[in-house]
Design a protein that fits this description.
The protein is α/β, with parallel strands linked by helices and 303 residues long. The chain has helices at 10-22, 34-42, 51-56, 72-84, 99-110, 127-130, 140-153, 167-194, 202-209, 218-230, 246-256, 262-277, 280-293; strands at 2-6, 26-30, 46-48, 63-66, 90-93, 115-122, 133-137, 159-161. The mean pLDDT is 94.
Length: 303
Amino acid sequence: MQIGFVGLGKMGGNMVHRIERDSDHEVVAFDPNADAVSTAEGHGATGAASLEELVSKLDKPRMIWLMVPSGNITESTIAKLADLLDEGDTIVDGGNSNWHDDVRRSEVLEAKGIHYVDVGVSGGVWGLEVGYCMMVGGPEDQVEKLAPILDVLAPPDGWRHFGEAGAGHFVKMVHNGVEYGIMQAYAEGFELMHKSKFPIEMAEVAALWNRGSVVRSWLCELAERAFREEGNDLEGLRGHVSDSGEGRWTIMDAIDHDVPTPAITASLYARFYSRDDGDYTHRVLAALRNQFGGHSVERAPQA
């Protein structure tokens, strides 16, 4: 199968690498950063210097997967592709788009005969080796055409189709809201232990909790890794925790559906608080985001 890829950053570049390494599928790859294109070519992809060249190198009906930042960049890229593609082609948005935008884009593109599929992707920088959990929305026939690529990118039984356009990113939005709450609970618990009178090693707690405990998880594994890398006090990090926006969207949808989400809402507010006066809880959160997603962290000034 042949597929185009636009966006070769931490996620997109690794996804292209995984497809080329683990399958016979052909990838045509483009990114405004020429070095990223060269890296993709080194993994076996065919490079393109522009969207126009990428489209020209794909056989009809074309399928193009976007892994670009949500918001204006996604909007402008889809608008440009809509003018370059033909009836029967498909655009796949694998970024962190708002599901409401998916519904709108699908309707606009369908009027031009262009199909639209949305894929919520979880796995962060670890996806290259362990695979990506993928939540899919869009027309059934187009998802079936995309399935060979999904099968390569995901771990065994690691993707699902949840309905029409928007369904994939809706499930991913809720996923990220839940993730906020879980991370906050871990961070608060570790701070309580850190401030206790006992000489508790946080890495040892995280390691122990992953051996039979009801709170064992991959995030707990990453907490152990972070404490071993950064030290028990995480003193090299600032407790500044950003948010991708999906926690906010989750809360807004919860309000629309009269669903109380106190844990998710409180965890988002805690991130807001961290930007003014971050403490140990937020250093834990920052460390966890860096571990699973490669998100940047702010380093504390050196004494």
